[in-house]
Design goal:
Blueprint (H helix, E strand, L loop, with lengths): L1 E4 L2 H4 L10 H16 L6 H11 L12 E2 L2 E4 L2 H50 L4 E9 L15 E9 L2 E12 L2 E6 L5 H13 L6 H13 L32 H13 L21 H7 L3 E4 L2 E5 L3 H15 L15 E3 L6 H19 L9 E10 L8 E4 L5 E8 L2 E3 L2 E6 L10 E3 L6 E6 L2 E5 L2 E14 L1 H5 L6
Antiparallel strand pairs: 1-3, 2-3, 4-5, 5-6, 6-7, 8-9, 9-17, 10-11, 11-19, 12-18, 13-17, 13-19, 14-19, 15-16, 15-18
């Protein structure tokens, strides 16, 4: 009688057994089929890891194989052969069931996609007066957010509403997953608007068609709500100083950043006309992107922290003037976040539509390139300006912390100062999370840093002058819904 420690490879040992028989022949074929069919876009390596992760469901059967307390009991050649045959049978049955389940799941997903395409085309053909645009359906970009749990988002439809009572477009993103529909405002909404949207989506029947969902959204959720900016006693939009800040910010982009974004757009793949499986399959990059990235002045100043010239000095100057104009308007102002005491929330300046457009046109492609997975689908934001001053209304410094975001964009707007460098440590959940790695000084106005929200960072004490920064916290409901949120 002998004993040995048993592991996953001991359970899979029959796969390499020289014994004859249809079971031993089918098992390797079944494993190979699983690796290719499970998710062909992810590649064999990722599916191999997924396959081993699913083997945990076989552990309750170990006593049948003579395994107790992590030990394999060997009591004779004949019995060992029987146990090997039983192991092969169990593994073969599991692989067969997995293939059937995956095939059924993918067939249903394909049917859902085609059904949504038909419904979207029919809805656009009706041309309802409240519908400004409808984009999709499409699958989530990339595949980093696909989890093993149920309820993960799989298909996306973006809808822009606009009507007589809402002259500014209102954007909502619909997420379809296994017959269930979720929705998110693509612009910050009031708590009342968030609650109404959540209640409405919970009342929908599973599998409701777009022809029912979209008109009902307009009639029951959006139309009764006050337009953007009207929830405050007095809207700032009517008294702005620089109207050009209330349009697209793309004209203010640094030429090098604009060139990179154009190349990224050329290198990205589109949606397959039949099923949309090709979205993000090759990623948003292009051959030689890293060389161009460095040539254009982009720099990875620390692991996962990127510095570059983002906006023109003119944008920074206009923005600071607009900020001062707003501060003297006498409207309500909130703290930008729980740590900074001094600053301005840009939603109170009615800049949310511009921030959302900037996020989708600039921050989204950069995040897909630099932070694949977590940065694939940005669908929400919190934007604000922070102010550091030696004297007067301003913070002196900021303790190390993480952001409530998936990706953070931090832009230096200008003014003159000394000190106040950004300090970067490690990532949350890493062993060196509070180990200082780098102190970064902004080269000048218009320069920005882009990093993960869970990147621990802070601000050193300002020695003289004033520094104002525009910060955009980009969030991803799809990433968090997949159970991949970092805390």
């Amino acid at each position: 009688m002998s004993w040995k420690v048993v592991g996953t490879w001991d359970i899979l040992a029959p796969l390499t057994s020289p014994q004859k028989g249809y079971v031993s022949c089918f098992a390797p074929v079944g494993l190979a089929a699983f690796l290719l069919v499970a998710a062909p876009d992810q590649g064999v390596t990722a599916n191999f890891s997924l396959y081993f992760a699913h083997l945990q469901f076989l552990f309750p059967l170990l006593p049948l194989l003579g395994v107790t307390n992590g030990q394999l009991h060997n009591d004779g050649a004949k019995t060992s052969q029987q146990r090997c045959s039983l192991a092969m049978g169990v593994l073969t049955l599991y692989t067969s069931c997995s293939l059937v389940a995956l095939g059924v799941s993918k067939t249903l997903q394909l049917d859902d996609f085609r059904r949504l395409r038909r419904e979207a085309s029919a809805l656009l053909g009706e041309r309802p007066s409240f519908l400004r645009s409808l984009e999709g359906p499409r699958r989530l970009w990339g595949h980093g957010m696909e989890g093993v749990g149920l309820g993960r988002p799989e298909i996306i439809v973006d809808i822009d509403f606009q009507g007589a009572t809402h002259p500014q477009p209102i954007s909502i993103r619909l997420y379809f997953s296994e017959g269930k529909i979720n929705a998110r405002w693509l612009l910050p909404s009031s708590p009342r608007g968030e609650d109404k949207l959540k209640s409405f989506m919970e009342s929908l029947l599973r599998g409701s068609p777009l022809s029912h969902v979209v008109p009902a959204l307009w009639e029951q959720v959006i139309s009764p709500e006050a337009p953007w900016g009207a929830t405050r006693s007095t809207s700032y939009r009517a008294r702005t100083l620089h109207r050009e800040l209330y349009g697209s910010w793309l004209s203010f982009l640094d030429p090098n950043l604009l060139l990179l974004l154009k190349r990224l757009q050329q290198g990205s793949t589109g949606t397959h006309t039949a099923c949309g499986r090709c979205v993000g399959k090759k990623g948003p990059s292009f051959p030689g992107w890293r060389q161009l990235f460095l040539k254009l002045g982009f720099e990875e100043i620390s692991r996962g922290v990127y510095a570059f010239q983002a906006m023109t000095p003119r944008f920074c100057s206009l923005f600071l003037q607009e900020l001062s104009w707003f501060e003297h308007a006498g409207l309500r102002r909130s703290r930008p976040n729980s740590m900074n005491k001094y600053g301005t929330v840009l939603d109170e300046m009615d800049l949310s539509p511009m921030i959302a457009h900037f996020q989708q046109q600039v921050l989204q492609p950069l995040s897909r390139l630099l932070f694949p997975g977590i940065g694939d689908e940005l669908d929400g934001h919190h934007a604000f300006v922070v102010r550091y001053r030696v004297e007067g209304a301003g913070d002196m410094d900021l303790a190390p912390h993480r952001d409530d975001s998936e990706v953070t964009f931090n832009l230096a707007l200008g003014r003159r100062w000394a000190g106040c460098e950004l300090t970067f440590c490690g990532l949350m959940q890493d062993q060196d999370v509070y180990h200082h790695r780098l102190s970064h000084k902004f080269p000048g106005e218009g320069w920005a840093v882009l990093h993960l929200g869970r990147q621990v960072h802070g601000t050193e004490k300002i020695r003289w002058g004033e520094r104002a920064n525009l910060v955009i916290w980009s969030r991803s409901w799809a990433w968090r819904a997949a159970g991949r949120i970092h805390v």
